[in-house]
Amino acid sequence: MSELLTRMFFGGFVRLHILYHATKEDIFGVEMMEELARHGYEVGPGTLYPMLQKLEEAGYLTSHAEVVGGKTRKYYRATREGAAALEATRAKLRELVKEVLEDRPPRPSIESNRRKGSS
Ligand SMILES: [Zn+2]
């Protein structure tokens, strides 16, 4: 997967994906990497862990550590703010899917705004 594509667009998809799963259950890094790989995103620990950390710093995730098989594992879960952020992106996502995948721009479209000269 192109690094440029990842940086430009997929980063947001991946963060949303993480947030979505974290609203459903506790997630942890390795499991999330496998889940993302299943969706075709090759996200390594050098990308994922800073992402998780930033989402936590933003208040969207909260974490706790557990010892599993002698190793400390950090679990993440979405906060109330995280769930609200996910909800807020849903409407945007729906509109984006409509426009980009179904080629149905919402009215008024950018084109018609331009014609009216009221950008
Ligand atoms: Zn998934």
Unreliable stretches covering 5 or more consecutive residues: none
Global outline:
elongated
Count of domain modules: 1
Query: Cα-atom Rg, whole angstroms?
Result: 18 Å
In short:
The protein is an alpha+beta fold. Helices cover 62% and strands 13% of the residues.
General description of the model:
The structure is a single chain. The protein contains five helices and two strands. With 119 residues, the protein is α+β, with helices and mostly antiparallel strands. It has a single domain (3-116), classed as Orthogonal Bundle (Arc Repressor Mutant, subunit A). It has a two-stranded antiparallel ribbon with strand order 1-2. A hairpin with a 2-residue loop joins β1 (61-68) and β2 (71-78). The radius of gyration is 18 Å and the shape is elongated. The model has no long low-confidence stretch (mean pLDDT 89). Residues 17, 21, 35, 39 line the site of zinc ion. Zinc ion is lined by residues 17, 21, 35, 39.
Q: What layout of secondary structure does this protein have?
A:
Elements (H helix, E strand, L loop, with lengths): L2 H22 L4 H10 L6 H13 L3 E8 L2 E8 L1 H22 L8 H7 L3
Antiparallel strand pairs: 1-2
Helix pairs in contact: 1-4
Bound molecules: zinc ion (ZN).
Zinc ion (ZN) binds next to α1.
